[in-house]
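chain below, 310 aa
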Amino acid sequence: MPLGTLDQTPPPFFRQGPSALTQLSLFAALAIFLMAADTRFAISGPLRAVVATGLMPVQRALAVPVDLGRDALGYLQGLGAARAQADATQARLTGQAVTLSRVAVLEAENIRLRTLLELRQATVANTVVAEIIYEAADPFSRKVVISRGTANGIVIASPVITESGVIGQVTRVYPLSAEVTLLGDKAASIPVLNTRTQQRAAAFGGAATATDGAPMELRFLASNADVQVGDQLTTSGLDGVYPAGLPVARVVGVDRLVDGGFARIRLAPNANVDGVRHVLVAQPLSLQLPPRPEPPPEPEKLPARHRSPK
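prediction:
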């Protein structure tokens, strides 16, 4: 199509009304008038109030999702903080519980050590404080291993004592440790004294039964021997190993056999090794006794030819 045939006149929309400059001037003057009128007569206040009142429900409706999101975020943050605080409190309580349990253990251990020290002062024998390391692996014996050996002056047959009484004696010694055979072992024996009747006897281990749980017994006592349930037995001190007067066991059962010559007397040790950590190892009494004086030399017998005539 030739260019001369095109209609180059502007559309009717742009041809109608005043020009842009006129519109700018008109609206600028109107704005200045409204500002001056509002400043002087405050005519925009009621109009603003009406518009604000009409827009209030819209603002509230639009603010609901924002408030919900803010509340949800605050709830999650508060929940996280509460959980973190609860975890911190639980950890603190756990630490305090562990500390309290350690304090209780230390207090009990302190009481045991004080009792052992008092026992050490009251015992005439030379003693060494030792710690129980572990129990022997042999399931058919009752033995424990302590943390003192020949380097600390421990010798075989040394009595091992707790605050409750005798638990056994050393039967094997190493440089830095020693093996203790407990009174309940089948190979253990100890001379005892009945504190009520002052009768001496020998207590042996390895007599535990499933019914009474008494791992010791008195042997070679007549069936009519004066022994009663509840009698306390202590060391007699006549064997040259144990100091006299240490608690050993108590009588828990007496079976008097009519057709036999001996009674079966069951004993329960006073000292229980379960839960005990520190023990006192005493030197055998035989090593503390003064040496026996040597007999005086016999006078030399002179030959017959040197004897003076009567």
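The longest strand covers residues 247-256. Residues 38 and 44 are 6 Å apart (CA to CA).
thats it, cya
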